[in-house]
Amino acid sequence: MSRFCVYLVVFCAMCCRFSVLSYPQGAPVRTESCVNLQPVHTDPLSNQPVQNQKGTTKPYRILVSQQQYQTCTTTQQCGLQPLQVSIQGQGGLFRGFIVQARTPSGGSRSWGQFFPLQTGDSKVIQCQNGLTLTHTANNDKNIVRFAWIPEPGMRDQVQFVATVVQNLRTIYPGVYSAQLRPVGAGLPGSAPLKTAGVISLVTSVIAILL
């Protein structure tokens, strides 16, 4: 998907005041899922909770379009430079997932806003610790793509962390992306925001929508 298409998806969603809906499919809005990133599946044979897969090797990864994000002061400005993110299987499929953007230093807060880039495979839910992305159906998937933008005033490093469900009995927690560092005006070693480019981008998107 081209970078311009990503801009268009985010811009349209923000213009329509993108609302967060909850559906029967996907992770439920409760502490186990939102804070602990646990699906809490129950084995139908033993009626016991399904245990997570152990070990450091995971057949899934989270890729980001770049390892930095542009700081911003308004919601509109934040939406002008979205990051493209994908959850991918490395030789295997998966059926479900829940992903948040958290600070590597700790804490359970989920930062920023998520925008699905593929129709019908993911949705945004409003958790008590922040906006979160999860699946909409338990069909087999090999990749899920979405865009992410920071919140106004963010200055911390963040990284995406997910729990990926391969099937009912196989769950992989702790799937991490690379860490994203903030860049922008007022930060050491950062170039100032290029206002001319931002204005040009917004003008182009509006022209397409009219």
UniProtKB/TrEMBL annotation:
Recorded superkingdom: Eukaryota
GO biological process assignments: defense response to bacterium; innate immune response
Keywords: Antibiotic, Antimicrobial, Immunity, Innate immunity, Secreted, Signal
Signal peptide: 1-22
InterPro entries according to UniProt: Ferric-chelate_Red/DefProt, Reeler_dom, Reeler_sf
Every Reelin domain range: 34-172
Keyword Cell membrane: no
Compartmental location: Secreted
Annotated GO CC locations: extracellular region; membrane
Main location: secreted
PANTHER family for this protein: CELL WALL INTEGRITY AND STRESS RESPONSE COMPONENT 4-LIKE-RELATED, CYTOCHROME B561/FERRIC REDUCTASE TRANSMEMBRANE
Family that this chain belongs to: Belongs to the insect defense protein family.
Name listed for the protein in its UniProt record: Defense protein l(2)34Fc-like isoform X8
Organism annotation: Crassostrea virginica (Eastern oyster)
Lineage: Eukaryota, Metazoa, Spiralia, Lophotrochozoa, Mollusca
